[in-house]
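tl;dr need the bound structure. longer version: we got a ligand (manganese (II) ion) that a collaborator sent over and nobodys looked at where it sits. i said id run it. heres the input, straight from their email, havent touched it
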Amino acid sequence: MGRSGYRNADDDPIHALIVEDDALAAPPMIQFNRAKRKRILIVEDNYSCLRLLDDVLEAHGYEIWETTKGLEAINLARNYRPDLILMDIRLPDISGLEVTRLLKQDHQTKCIPIIAVTAFAMPGDEAKALESGCDAYIAKPIIVDNLVRTVDSFLSPLPPIGSALMPSNEGEPNLA
Ligand code: MN
């Protein structure tokens, strides 16, 4: 499946990072479905955590991109606009909190939901993550149900509870 017009793999960071091998022949119907899948960028430098996030979310129908570096995450987000970002806080180059601040200051990327993922779940961490602009927070060790529910809440929103039942105020007589 041709992902882009890149001249070679070195010019194509997404292709270099993609988990799946797109060279594997996929029947047309699967390609169609895959084209509709929501794309999640996982920013995580811990290999086992990355594998878990990747396996769970891919099995759940999401297309996964991954990187271990914060600066690369910024470039990927700006150039390819994932539907959601899972952001580890401790990264080898710059803090995931700083990456989040930069993405939330940029009008091109500020609407992408960012879920912080961090190992040091200490008092204040959640506040720091939210303060930097993260939309939600997941603590390690990852609880699979919690991960999926949190991601789904951004990418597969259910209709608001009671939205079909609440009577509209429009058209009611003004009794005041
Ligand atoms: Mn880390």
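gonna send this back to them w/ a short note. The CA atoms of residues 8 and 15 lie 10 Å apart.
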